[in-house]
Amino acid sequence: MADTLLATTRSAELFARAQNLLPGGVDSPVRAFRAVGGTPRFVARGKGSAIWDVDGNRYIDYLASWGPLIAGHAHPGVVAAVQDAATRGTSYGAPIEAELELAELVKRAFPSIDLVRFVNSGTEATMSALRLARAKTGRDMILKFDGGYHGHVDGLLVQAGSGPLTFGQPDSAGVPAAAASQTLSVAYNDLPAVRAAFEAHAGQIAAVIVEPVAGNMGVVPAEPGFLEHLRSMTREHGALLIFDEVITGFRVAQGGAQERFRITPDLTCLGKILGGGLPVGAYGGRRDIMEQVSPLGPVYQAGTLSGNPLAMAAGIATLRLLTEPGVYAHLEALSARLADGLSAAAASGGVPYTANRVGSMLTGFFCGERVTDYVSAKRADTRRYASFFHAMLARGVYLAPSQFEAGFVSLAHTEADVDATVQAALAAFRASAE
Ligand code: PMP
Fold first, then answer.
1. Which one, of 165, 288, 156, lies nearest residue 210 by Cα?
2. How far, in Å, from the CA of 40 to the mean position of ligand 1?
3. For the chain, how are helix, strand and coil distributed in percent, rounded to 5?
């Protein structure tokens, strides 16, 4: 992969320095650009829909910090709230009123949540929700979906086995076989496989955990009826339904995918937008389940920085913006304009391309067929994506540095941003075809 970055750039210097400090030069793997090649840009600052790298290049940003920044970078209201909170101290390890304000905003948006516990990341949220589901049901097994990512929890780093009922193998070294053996993984949108798993492991499955719009194999919507059947099957088999709305919460509707598709899960995991760009996750749900959590119940879960004042302030400021009328209709229209523009640009460049979009989360797959699950997502031409990614970067558009990620439109993006992006894509698709 040709890197457009000269070895003399500040980003290249910093990335070289990082090699002796951080594994692979980064604190989270995909940031290292391994999937697209080349040298990651070190970011100096962001404002609204744009980021600037340390060499002064400006990019229209569709990564949005992997989802949280629905209000854009450095939103004045969010910055002011964080600054104001910081003047009163950064952490106390004692209850604060802001936790209640954020919890009230969560409950208003998510009627399925009676009680909520704030944590510090999406990973903590899913890890804790599984522990709780196991405690509540007295069962150990978890059913997830191939290509579903729920953070780096041991038992969730399990991909597909060779068949839907095969016990999963650890995806990561260091995951105990015992942890992986309690996780079943079947194809997304494959209801017969879910049914077969429940039949083969009758009375053993504690919960089904699902991204109600998959976002971590690129965006893959649930097919009509899929979530409804997960709801009825989990009920029938005495398992809990956990919606991992870390991406979709406050993204595809204020009340997440459960509002958009009118399904009530037993437990919900939140993160990303909830913290407005600061480290916050949460899990919540029905009172009788959440009452199992310590100090009310026997399920232990805690955090030194949980409910952190700066994080609560950023979350409150962000969620308040999302209660303004017309916010989601605006995001929908702008995102449709982007997805349609990119599809038209790909068509004019003769590039096989499938745009998957739900609200303001979207992925353009470099393949001609429908993408409905992990297997079909993997048919995408990742080399062509890499070439497109770099061609866009060179034209001032920052996309996710992997084909299998979502792009995000924020309230800070404008029609002019979207139109400039589509213009850049016209040239980039042609470049990627060469
Ligand atoms: N669940 C989903 C659906 C996610 O997309 C992610 C992160 N991308 C996580 C959980 C884990 O969140 P975190 O990275 O904050 O631990």
1. 156
2. 21
3. 40, 15, 45
**DSSP structure class, residue 103:** H
377-420: pLDDT as tens digits: 999 999 999 999 999 999 999 999 999 999 999 999 999 999 99
Quick one: which atom of ligand 1 is closest to the CA of 28? 14
**Cβ distance 191 to 122 under 8 Å?**
no
pTM of the model: 0.96
Q: What is the pLDDT of residues 153-200, one digit of tens each?
A: 999 988 632 333 334 555 788 989 899 899 999 999 999 999 999 999
Domain architecture of the chain: domains with CATH: 9-70+326-433 (3.90.1150.10), 76-321 (3.40.640.10)
Look up 272 and say whether it is catalytic. yes
Full DSSP string of 330-384:
HHHHHHHHHHHHHHHHHHHTT---EEEEETTEEEEESSSS---SHHHHTTS-HHH
Q: Is 47 a catalytic residue?
A: no
Structure tokens at 320: 């308040």
Beta carbons of 112 and 265 less than 8 angstroms apart: yes
Bridge partner list, 48? 73
